[in-house]
Amino acid sequence: MNVLEAMKKNSEVIMPESYRELERAELEDRVRAIKKRMGDRLFIPCHHYQKDEVVQFADAIGDSLKLAQISAQNQVAEVIAFCGVHFMAETADILTTDQQTVMLPDMRAGCSMADMADLNQTERCWDVLQNTFGDTVLPLTYVNSTAAIKAFVGKHGGATVTSSNAKNMIQWALQKKERILFLPDQHLGRNISHELGIPLEKMAVWDPIHHTFEFDGDIRDAIIILWKGHCSVHENFRADHVHQLREKDAEINILVHPECPYETVSISDYAGSTSYIIETIENASAGSKWAIGTEMNLVQRLINQHPDKDIVSLNPYMCPCLTMNRIDLPHLVWALESIEKNETAKHQVKVPKEISGDAMLALNRMMEQ
Fold this sequence. Notes:
six-stranded mixed beta sheet; 369 residues; four-stranded parallel beta sheet; Rossmann fold; globular; alpha/beta
């Protein structure tokens, strides 16, 4: 089930307004009380992009796959209240046991990138690829995708990738087949493929809306087929932002996520995953200057944690990820109190077995590399 289907199914499940009326101190006290009562039976993983009001209660902080893996390693927790977005909770449900319940505090917390590739579109694309290229294409999907897309990729011999291991996974895939279908983020696929030495002229874009290739020349020359999807946050870090900052200060370091457009990444000083960005700032010398192209909650947290460094957002008008920010303190309290009322179904994310099995194949192929 993608997040749009989940929203439709749960449209009648809306947080009572009374939670909005509570003072922050009261909300925080309620979370502390539930955590104390439940103890090890409750586990709260939080993504880096979450608000500080939620992150303060995290039992673990990380990227989506790391949090899902940590959740799977936790054999004691009965309930995992995943503070992230829908596809992340799906991955946690796939990796955890049947005895564990994975919850999303707000079922409307989705990912626009993940929803840019649905199963019907992907199957139609696959038919065209088979007719065009024959059995020469292996599918890879970014972990920022729905369980259904992960299952499709797993069923067809492919694997998932993260922004940290995409280079290794693309190399792995090209040892098995002549071409790759890379879902759903065209920017990550383009940036990492180019870093591996594959020219842009060998990369085609598949437009799932118009059901056609975007490519100059003979399509049979394409090695990488990029799905026309993107992160709505990272796409807004542009090359002109880099030029403007460098004109103001030649000493500033530009550090971006590879979900940003190629034009931005290619002229930046550093590019890497969320973990890479955090580690780069942690290891940077005092007094150094940085402009970071990633989600604003994380940038602001890095600014607060490193007052000895001059850090700004690459795009000064950037806002936090809107869907990620649906998980706020009132929704967290509502979800946690639902546990004690035996009303977890309002928040539970459950991937059907027929999907989770194939999705697990894709995840395992990645983790085996």
